[in-house]
Amino acid sequence: MEILSILLEELLGFLGITQVLEILKSGDYSAFRTYDGIASLIYPIIPLLLLLELVVGLIYKKPQIKVYKVNFLIYIFNRFVGRFISIAMVAFCIGLFSAYAPFKTSNTWYWFLYAYVVWEFGHFIYHYLGHKVRLFWCLHSTHHAPEEMNLSVTHAHFFLEAPYADTIRTTVCILAGVQPELLFTVMFIDGTYGAFIHIGENMIKDARFGFLNKLMLTPSHHRVHHARNPLYMDTNFCNLLNIWDKVFGTYQEEQKSVQIEYGITREMDSGNFMDVYFGEIVALAKDVAKAPGITNKFRYLIMPPGWSHTGEHKTAKVVRRAYLKNR
């Protein structure tokens, strides 16, 4: 019975309805007008959309079942090995860096906008490094391995990626004076939208969202980010506000003439949990082992994926530049 209780708790947690059920059980429906109450109504949206997306895919016979299967296994694995690490790192960074902030924000709309822009900058830094530093790519590549875009991809992460990401994002925000209350609000909104932008074509075919495509980051932009096409590689690192991609020259819109190909450039079995989760770590270990000299071994850790000690680089920058030159 204890096992069934644990499974039920995990199911309710995945669906995001635990807090709603607690409020309904208490009978105090006025709680739905509070921040926590509103958040409790928003939490289930993404899981329910995920299930709906899967059902629609089954109806149209278009889902890649192996993508859902592997991403589900990743979700289960991460629940056991990395459940509280990210939360601990956020708390640690808040406690460590709060004293060094030159000023403090307050709970006003303009400081909220400031906090969001700062958070996106921190997100850009983490995400950019995840693509440009081989060791960090080993953590991030799990998220890019699926060869289909759908909401289950939200759960496809190496368990150490969230702590690493939240360490950078939280540190940037706290040093920039963002109060923890504002930080947690931004994290909630950004996390929810960050899940939504993985919605697949079975649910939303053209996800440019009209004029919004110019003002914010849409699912179309994020589909471009997950593409392995030379034109699309290493672009659109932001999450909601694409301001920093435009500032740093990594902004790329989806082109109707270039159909998106999802996945990573390394040959792999995207239906194999071990290859999806540990494949890049194994590949890095092999490159380090065969590299001559300690300097080259170290450079494999910090240089971009595709860098080679022989000089025959196949980094995203090299591949994209060659593609654009020959267009």
UniProtKB/TrEMBL annotation:
Domain of life: Bacteria
Entry keyword set: Lipid metabolism, Membrane, Oxidoreductase, Transmembrane, Transmembrane helix
Domain Fatty acid hydroxylase, chain residue ranges per copy: 113-250
Transmembrane regions listed in the UniProt entry: 41-60, 80-103, 109-129
Pfam families, alphabetized: FA_hydroxylase
Chief subcellular location: membrane
UniProt KW Metal-binding keyword: no
UniProt-listed InterPro entries: Fatty_acid_hydroxylase, Sterol_desaturase/TMEM195
Membrane topology: Multi-pass membrane protein
Compartments where located: Endomembrane system
Name of the protein in its database record: Sterol desaturase family protein
